């Protein structure tokens, strides 16, 4: 679309910009490092656009100052929240303003007036938490609610899962506090625009006059073209400036994608929460059948009607286990229908009536009411993770956005989907469908090949045909994600020239120099320009890890990250503890993945020796939570180990890599003379030795035990070489040898006698410090030592060691023995769960426990493995500290990481410990978790215990 907006000047350099900002806005934090620019070159779209610099304004004055400098220098400005845009509208070539870092406060809640005033960078979930005590909520709820910001929602006019009831973000806006391109402050409300101060009065008056002139010149086109269907987000929504709508400046700015003004704060309308709600899950043979039933369902006034197909469900189960999706009725496509009302009985009766009518219609295969809150949470998580789950399917194939947001009227949805699937077939493409079916909005990720010339040509051809198709069905290119770089070029398919010219005039009125998010909507960049996978890379670096699910090796593995940003959430799951501690994109799983992608692309100097990449990975705790919580299965712990291996190869390492990385060796030596070693380590000399080894002196180091101490109290085991093996790991042998006897006795009592082995090492400490050559040799010896063709289970007392043997062993050692051993590995919890399934129960268990599940156990063996077992054992109340403990092996013992380690513990573990009764047992199987708990509680209460000790008569602390 060509209009009157000039292209921004490109003459200013990074040095020019940073020098001007330093001089004129000295308090503004600006980062021009290669690593930071790498992290902000991407959002959740197909595009890569490195900025000149990234800034983190702390208040509106700094936003104003940054705009004034950029306006004078001709530098583009892109405002950014969580950076989860799928259309490419959160990346730009100039200065990126990250409003999510500091501008995230709730300024005021007016419960009587049902409004809230918030800064633009506040995360939606944080607003919801602030409004909840008043029985209120913000209506729109995108699936990214745990990390998306209000500013981003305004920019896209976002909707969400309950848009059938609550509509678009713009409908819930009362007023916006704006900064214009030249730094002018203004307020937009339902009655128009006004200047914040006298200095901006003339500029705002001129802007208002120009906007009125644009509307008056295009009255007929606006009335006939815009606002035809509920989800018509494409283009600018000029209908809100019509005389009959009262020159509504707030509504017209919703969906402008940061191209007209920067929002620094907003006053939003809140809604009362319905007293009763019920989820109805409906199964169908096909998504088209599901769409056919949408008009019937809408007659029941649901709050939500969400759809998804079987590929997303299969991916969720593949990645997180069968138990991750429970409660779905029979079918290969599903609708989630949320009904609400004043009384639970009335809602349930309405749900039953809905099921009866759907059965009569004959398309529904099965349906059920979901009353259990765990099942509801499980099902909604599948839908909320749809974009990520659809990005990397069970067969390893990738799919991409680009046509992920089209919408039609709900009564035309089935016909559109039928024709759309035929179009994909014609283009020999496949897609994964999900979306807001009740609003006619379809999200789909398609198996484009944007990494080849032919693939890019095919993508362009399909997108052009898809635009024509949705227009024929009376629909819109975008329903809530915005047009961005992905669809801006296609607006000419949807709108006639007069409307495009009106859009251009509207943009120019706000931003005469074209500096605000250029290349979006007006004078758009070609849809196949700036594609991230158009790399030109011809070689793929070799990795030590086999990366069995990534045939493209390390490049394909780090390329899993598509930017959906679940790692930026502060609640739910465990990922990402370091981001939750710092709030810095660099310390999120996504930020690290993007940095690695740029390193492998060759955009960061040094390759594997890259300083920027090392800094981005430094605060990664190697907790592995991302491998489970990330919808696309990014495993940053593995990638960090791979990087450290190459980065320090044939070079001196950090001292902690020798002290903590070689811990199995040091514990073996200390076990020969534990008393003198403990005496030394407890003295001033020991503190000096710890500092020399890069170990913090703020923690008490555990005492070493003799090398044979772990053998005491073992239950008599069988001599049969094919029997079960109990692996007594290095941590257990050296620091908690009494655990070996407890585990042996409990397993024997449960009907699983074991042979205890104390000569086994998993190599974990060498893996986490990137000493993969040593780790591989250690693991090869371990596999050879315990491999038997028909051996029983290998039970490992330490969860992190069990996870290493189950996952890392076959990725580092390519042998049948390694694969056989990995398949036999069980955590102590897992082995006991198998016995419980056979009918075993302990005689007594406590009524209540506080539970800290080890992150590696959570990631590799399932988030609920330990919780489910405790429930099956009869423990009635389980208070779970859902999150990383913060020690994570060597991380929390390293001098430079101590403060972050405690900040991570503050997220979940410390609050649960402080709230618990001192007599309540604290259960933590991981040695590092136990060390953190002991450090946190001090002498105030007993420390943590292993499940084996909890169940063992001889050691159970709750029975004493």
Can you walk me through this structure?
This protein has 960 residues and is an alpha/beta fold. It contains 43 helices and 25 strands. The strands form six sheets. The chain has a six-stranded antiparallel sheet with strand order 5-6-11-8-9-10. Helix 1 packs across helix 3 (60-73), helix 23 runs antiparallel to helix 24 and helix 35 (799-812) packs across helix 38. The radius of gyration is 29 Å and the shape is globular.
Task: Briefly characterize the structure.
40% of the residues lie in helices and 12% in strands.
How are the SSEs ordered, and which strands pair?
Elements: H1 14-24, E1 29-31, H2 34-39, E2 53-56, H3 60-73, E3 77-80, E4 95-98, E5 106-110, E6 115-119, H4 124-131, E7 136-137, H5 150-156, H6 163-166, E8 173-179, E9 185-189, E10 192-195, H7 201-217, H8 219-225, H9 249-253, E11 262-269, E12 271-272, E13 276-284, H10 287-292, H11 294-298, E14 304-309, H12 310-320, E15 333-341, H13 344-361, E16 366-370, H14 373-384, H15 386-389, H16 413-426, E17 431-436, E18 441-446, H17 453-472, H18 484-487, H19 491-494, H20 497-510, H21 553-558, H22 577-582, H23 589-601, H24 611-617, H25 625-629, H26 636-647, H27 655-659, H28 663-670, H29 674-681, H30 684-692, E19 724-727, H31 730-735, H32 738-749, E20 754-757, H33 764-768, H34 772-786, E21 794-796, H35 799-812, H36 816-824, E22 825-827, H37 828-837, E23 848-851, H38 855-861, H39 865-873, E24 877-880, H40 898-905, H41 909-915, E25 922-923, H42 927-937, H43 947-951
Parallel strand pairs: 2-4, 3-4, 19-20, 19-21, 21-22, 23-24, 23-25
Antiparallel strand pairs: 1-2, 5-6, 6-11, 7-12, 8-9, 8-11, 9-10, 13-15, 13-16, 14-15, 14-17, 17-18
Helix pairs in contact: 1-3, 7-20, 16-17, 23-24, 34-36, 35-36, 35-38, 37-39
């Amino acid at each position: 679309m060509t209009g009157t907006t000039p292209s921004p000047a490109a003459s200013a350099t990074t040095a020019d910009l940073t020098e001007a900002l330093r001089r004129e806005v000295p308090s503004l934090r600006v980062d021009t490092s290669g690593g930071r620019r790498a992290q902000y070159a991407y959002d959740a779209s197909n595009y890569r656009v490195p900025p000149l610099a990234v800034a983190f304004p702390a208040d509106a004055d700094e936003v104003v100052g940054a705009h004034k400098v950029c306006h004078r220098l001709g530098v583009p400005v892109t405002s950014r929240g969580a950076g989860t845009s799928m259309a490419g509208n959160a990346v730009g070539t100039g200065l990126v303003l990250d409003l999510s870092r500091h501008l995230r406060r709730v300024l005021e809640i007016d419960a009587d007036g049902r409004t809230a005033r918030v800064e633009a960078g506040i995360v939606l979930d944080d607003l919801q938490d602030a409004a909840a005590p008043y029985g209120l909520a913000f209506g729109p709820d995108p699936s990214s609610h745990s990390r998306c910001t209000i500013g981003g929602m305004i920019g896209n006019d976002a909707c969400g899962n309950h848009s059938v009831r609550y509509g678009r973000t713009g409908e819930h806006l009362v007023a916006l506090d704006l900064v214009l391109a030249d730094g002018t402050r203004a307020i937009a409300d339902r009655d128009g625009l006004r200047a914040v101060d006298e200095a901006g009065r003339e500029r705002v008056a001129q802007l208002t006059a120009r906007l009125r002139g644009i509307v008056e010149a295009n009255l007929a086109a606006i009335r006939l073209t815009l606002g035809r269907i509920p989800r018509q987000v494409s283009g600018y929504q000029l209908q809100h400036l019509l005389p009959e709508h009262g020159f509504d400046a707030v509504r017209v700015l919703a969906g402008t994608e940061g191209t007209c003004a920067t929002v620094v704060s907003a006053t939003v309308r809140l809604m009362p929460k319905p007293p009763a709600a019920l989820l109805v899950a409906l199964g169908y043979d096909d998504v088209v059948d599901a769409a056919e039933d949408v008009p019937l369902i809408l007659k029941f006034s649901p709050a939500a009607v969400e759809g998804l197909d079987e590929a997303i469900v299969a991916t969720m189960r593949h990645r997180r286990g069968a138990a991750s999706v429970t409660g779905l009725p029979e079918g290969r496509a599903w609708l989630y229908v949320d009904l609400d009302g004043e009384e639970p009985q009335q809602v349930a009766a309405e749900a039953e009536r809905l099921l009866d009518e759907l059965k009569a219609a004959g398309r529904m295969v099965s349906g059920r009411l979901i009353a259990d809150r765990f099942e509801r949470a499980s099902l909604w998580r599948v839908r909320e993770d749809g974009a990520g789950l659809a990005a990397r399917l069970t067969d390893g194939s990738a799919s991409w956005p680009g046509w992920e947001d089209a919408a039609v009227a709900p009564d035309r949805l089935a016909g559109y989907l039928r024709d759309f699937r035929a179009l994909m077939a014609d283009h020999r493409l496949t897609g994964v469908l999900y979306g807001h079916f009740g609003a006619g909005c379809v999200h789909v990720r398609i198996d484009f090949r944007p990494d080849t010339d032919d693939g890019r040509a095919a993508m362009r051809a399909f997108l052009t045909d898809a635009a024509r198709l949705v227009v024929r069905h009376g629909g819109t290119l975008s329903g809530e994600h915005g047009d961005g770089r992905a669809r801006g070029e296609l607006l000419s398919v949807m709108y006639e020239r007069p409307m495009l010219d009106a859009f251009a005039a509207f943009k120019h009125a706000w931003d005469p120099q074209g500096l605000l998010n250029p290349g979006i909507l007006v004078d758009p960049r070609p849809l196949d320009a700036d594609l991230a996978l158009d790399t030109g890379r011809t070689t793929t670096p070799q990795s030590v890890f086999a990366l069995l699910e990534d045939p493209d090796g390390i490049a394909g593995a780090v390329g899993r990250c598509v930017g959906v940003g679940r790692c930026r959430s502060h609640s739910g799951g465990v990922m990402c503890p370091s981001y939750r501690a710092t709030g810095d994109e660099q310390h999120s799983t996504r930020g690290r993945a993007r940095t690695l992608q740029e390193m492998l692309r060759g955009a960061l100097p040094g390759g594997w020796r890259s300083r920027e990449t090392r800094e981005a990975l430094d605060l990664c705790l190697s907790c592995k939570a991302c491998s489970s919580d990330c919808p696309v299965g990014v495993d940053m712990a593995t990638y960090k180990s791979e990087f450290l291996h190459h980065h320090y190869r044939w070079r001196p390492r950090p001292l902690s890599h020798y002290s903590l990385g070689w811990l199995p060796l040091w514990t073996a030596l200390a076990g020969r003379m534990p008393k003198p070693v403990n005496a030394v380590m407890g003295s001033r000399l020991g503190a000096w030795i710890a500092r020399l080894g890069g170990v913090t002196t703020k923690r008490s180091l555990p005492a070493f035990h003799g090398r044979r101490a772990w053998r005491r109290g073992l239950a008599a085991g069988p001599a049969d070489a094919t029997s079960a093996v109990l692996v007594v790991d290095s941590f257990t042998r050296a620091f908690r040898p009494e655990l070996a006897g407890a585990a042996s006795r409990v397993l024997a009592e449960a009907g699983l006698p074991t042979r205890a082995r104390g000569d086994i090492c998993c190599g974990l400490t060498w893996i986490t410090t990137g000493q993969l050559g040593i780790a591989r040799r250690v693991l090869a010896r371990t596999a050879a030592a315990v491999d038997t063709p028909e051996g029983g289970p290998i039970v490992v007392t330490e969860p992190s060691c069990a996870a290493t043997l189950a996952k890392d062993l076959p990725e580092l050692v390519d042998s049948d023995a390694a694969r056989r051993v990995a398949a036999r590995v069980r955590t102590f919890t897992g082995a006991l769960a198998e016995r419980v399934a056979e009918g075993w129960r302990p005689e007594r268990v406590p009524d209540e426990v506080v539970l800290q599940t080890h992150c590696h156990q959570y990631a590799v063996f399932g988030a609920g493995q330990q919780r489910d077992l405790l429930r099956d054992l009869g423990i009635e109340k389980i208070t779970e500290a859902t999150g990383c403990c913060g020690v994570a092996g060597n991380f929390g013992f390293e001098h430079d990481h101590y403060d972050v380690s405690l900040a991570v513990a503050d997220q979940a573990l410390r609050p649960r410990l402080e709230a618990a009764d001192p007599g309540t047992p604290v259960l933590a199987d991981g040695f590092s978790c136990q060390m953190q708990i002991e450090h946190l509680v001090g002498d105030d209460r007993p420390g943590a215990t292993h499940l084996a000790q909890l169940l063992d008569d001889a050691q159970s602390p709750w029975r004493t």
